[in-house]
Write a structure and sequence with these properties.
mainly alpha
Length: 118
């Protein structure tokens, strides 16, 4: 990998980090609102039990997405650390030492392996 490609991947990591941080901030802002405010209900009592179930499911999906985003942020931060601390080895498969294709790194700049493991 050449210096220009590394610089491109650094920009991609910074862009992805900003995207994830913004998504997490939106989640935090939404969770500060009460369910009543989110749904526009005039009371805390749902009109139907299905409404309460839907609200709970939506909250769980949002929390699950936030957990995924938090894990992704950790991977991005770790990739930036690897890039800054040892740029000559950045982009190498952690298991085999083979170079990870630039195309794969452009899509997933925090990738640790040359191919997905199944």
């Amino acid at each position: 990998m050449n210096a220009e490609q590394r610089k491109h991947l650094e920009r991609r990591l910074i862009e992805e980090r900003a995207r994830v941080v913004a998504a997490l901030e939106r989640y935090r802002a939404q969770t500060r609102d009460t369910v009543q405010e989110q749904t526009g209900d005039l009371s805390n009592v749902p009109f139907h039990l299905a409404d309460e179930g839907t609200d709970t499911m939506d909250e769980e999906l949002d929390a699950s997405e936030a957990a995924r985003e938090t894990a992704e942020l950790s991977e991005i931060d770790d990739a930036l650390r690897r890039l800054y601390q040892s740029p000559e080895t950045f982009g190498r498969d952690e298991r085999t030492g083979r170079e990870i294709s630039f195309e794969r790194l452009d899509l997933i700049p925090w990738a640790r392996t040359a191919a997905p493991t199944g």
